[in-house]
Design a protein that fits this description.
The structure is a single chain. This protein is of the alpha/beta class. The chain has 3 domains: 224 residues, Phosphoenolpyruvate Carboxykinase, domain 1, CATH 3.40.449; 61 residues, Phosphoenolpyruvate Carboxykinase, domain 2 (Beta Complex); 187 residues, Phosphoenolpyruvate Carboxykinase, domain 3, CATH 3.90.228. It is built from 14 helices and 31 strands. Helix 1 packs parallel to helix 3, helix 2 runs antiparallel to helix 4 and helix 9 runs antiparallel to helix 10. The longest helix has 23 residues. The protein is globular, with a radius of gyration of 23 Å.
């Protein structure tokens, strides 16, 4: 089907529905979410909801991108996260989704945008049969700005059909959708058609599926407009200097970006254009495992503050709730991935516009459980592009079944599942913008020192905060640096309020030979991963040569 055919069918669906709820007021969304029994009201006034086990997280193996002959060269199909779908299969899904929505008892249309900079705000129309899904879109996506007409996407909106609780008729899609281990066909799909500007969430009730679908869409469209999309948090100091923090789960991105002395622009998704940095979102989708009011006071207060439920609207997803309405975020029997969605305005220290200047400082965060990456390193342009490509951190023993030793994890651009374009595109844009706007880049290791996990200890948070502060304040500009020849890193030999002996990892190991062996092993993992992921992508030698093990 062509885009116009999709548009016509969507228009027919909306116009033909007798009781369409279009852009209903927020309090009404909350009220209907409770009345429809999609959520329960907690003691504090927040809403709690639960999904089936297959929807307690994203389903990357059921996430597809439509492969069109005219645009397929723009997508890196060598990435395991970019799974192709034929236009014909998408047409079938679209037709079935429209038919399912037309039979729904309730239908909600929510019109928002993604992107705080009006120059590239993307209009997003969410059509769903659930009030709670509509409320999630209201939490996470932004109100339409008055100057939307100046956006490069003003006349190119994107539409999402979200049917979280209904399952696909799998028999129709044999050999079209994923075949499960038992030989049956999967009954859920998250599919994106970039060319025809439609996405479908069918059978996945994990609300992050909607959020990450739109993030993936932005990560495809923005580079075509000369804008670099980033999976990062961003904040701004009193001097107006913006900082970006990139890092995978467990590296401390949320903790370090929630700085009482710096206003938060956003915690997860941003664009870097000729105007500066802009948050994509209107809210946060925070991981809630083990959160307490002491460990994460900002997130705790955003989710757990007391208010009448019609004024609240924070959504707690898949957490253990006790009969008295209290929540136990330490109970992981449902999932390790309990989440909460809430508007940015629920936080105490934000920049309401969610836009800032060009970043003075960029921090790449890693939690190296091998204990061999320096706690802080200054990266030049080629080094920054290399570590951006690699997106390294490590899994810890005990976090997953069968994991008894630290395991190296590589997620390109610190967000591999959501970055569909060719890798050289993102890397070159980062290098060009670093050079143009003179942004400083540091690698911060929040992981282990004195040995690998189980031998050494995690670097103290107060030391990490001191290193972050030094990077942001540019107090490391004139200190003496030492070159780490294994990892090709420039390591400061001193940093205010940090013991100098921990800055060079080998100095902290009792057994220097063990350090050499472990460092060489990790460097080889880098080299092997680079060859596997980028060997045929024409990455410049100047970047390749900065890869550990090369």
């Amino acid at each position: 089907m062509k885009t116009s055919v999709f548009s016509n069918q969507i228009t027919q669906l909306l116009n033909g529905y007798n009781n369409l709820k279009k852009n209903v007021e927020r309090r009404e969304m909350i009220k209907l979410s409770v009345e429809q029994r999609d959520a329960l009201v907690m003691e504090c006034g927040a809403l709690a909801t639960w999904t089936l086990p297959e929807s307690t997280g994203r389903s990357p193996k059921d996430t597809y991108m439509v492969q069109h002959p005219g645009s397929q060269h723009l997508i890196d199909w060598t990435s395991a996260n970019n799974i192709p779908m034929t236009p014909e299969t998408f047409d079938m899904l679209f037709k079935d989704a429209i038919e399912e929505l037309s039979k729904s008892k309730d239908l909600f249309e929510t019109d928002r945008v993604v992107g705080a900079d009006s120059a590239y705000s993307l209009p997003v129309k969410t059509i769903t049969d659930k009030a709670l899904e509509s409320l999630f879109a209201d939490n996470m996506f932004r109100p339409i700005p008055t100057d939307i007409n100046k956006s490069v996407f003003a006349d190119k909106p994107f539409t999402v059909l979200a049917i979280p609780d209904k399952k696909i008729n799998a028999a129709k899609y044999k050999n079209r959708l994923r075949t499960l281990d038992n030989g049956e066909t999967s009954d859920l799909a998250v599919a994106i058609d970039f060319d025809r500007r439609v996405g479908i969430v069918y059978g996945s009730a994990y609300m992050g599926s909607l959020k990450k679908l739109i993030f993936t869409v932005m990560n495809y469209y923005l580079p075509l407009e000369g804008i670099l999309p980033l999976h990062c948090s961003a904040n701004e100091g009193a001097n107006g200097h913006t900082a970006l923090l990139l890092g995978l789960s467990g590296t401390g991105k949320t903790t370090l970006s929630a700085d009482p002395n710096r206003a938060l622009l956003g915690d997860d998704e941003h664009g870097w254009s000729e105007h500066g940095i802009a948050n994509f979102e209107n809210g946060c989708y925070a991981k809630m495992i083990d959160i307490t009011s002491e460990s994460e006071p900002e997130i705790w207060n955003a989710v757990m503050h007391n208010d009448h439920y019609l004024n609240h609207g924070a959504i707690i997803e898949n957490a253990m709730v006790l009969p008295n309405g209290k929540v136990d975020f330490f109970d992981t029997r449902l999932t390790q991935n309990s989440r909460s969605s809430y508007p940015l305005t629920f936080l105490s220290n934000i920049k309401p516009s969610s836009v800032g200047g060009h970043p003075s400082t960029i921090l790449f965060l890693t939690a190296d459980a091998y204990g061999v990456i320096p706690p802080i390193s200054r990266l030049d342009e080629n080094q920054a592009m290399l570590w951006f490509l690699m997106g390294y951190t490590s899994k810890l023993a005990g976090t997953e079944t069968g994991v008894t030793e630290p395991q190296a994890t590589f997620s390109r651009f610190f967000g591999a599942p959501f970055m569909p374009s060719q890798p050289a595109v993102y890397a070159k844009m980062l290098g060009d913008k670093m050079k143009q706007f003179k942004s400083k880049v540091y690698l911060i290791n929040t992981g282990w020192s004195g040995g690998k996990y189980g031998v050494g200890s995690r670097i103290k948070l107060r030391y990490t905060r001191a290193m972050v502060e030094a990077a942001l304040n540019d107090t490391l500009k004139d200190v003496v640096y030492e070159n780490d020849k294994i990892f090709h890193l420039n390591v400061p030999t001193s940093c205010p309020n940090v013991p100098s002996e921990i800055l060079i990892p080998k100095n902290t190991w009792a057994n220097k030979a063990d350090y050499d062996t472990t460092a060489a092993m990790l460097a080889k993992k880098f080299s092997d991963q680079f060859d596997k992921a980028y060997g045929n992508h024409g990455i410049a030698d100047a970047i390749k040569n900065e890869c550990p093990g090369k």
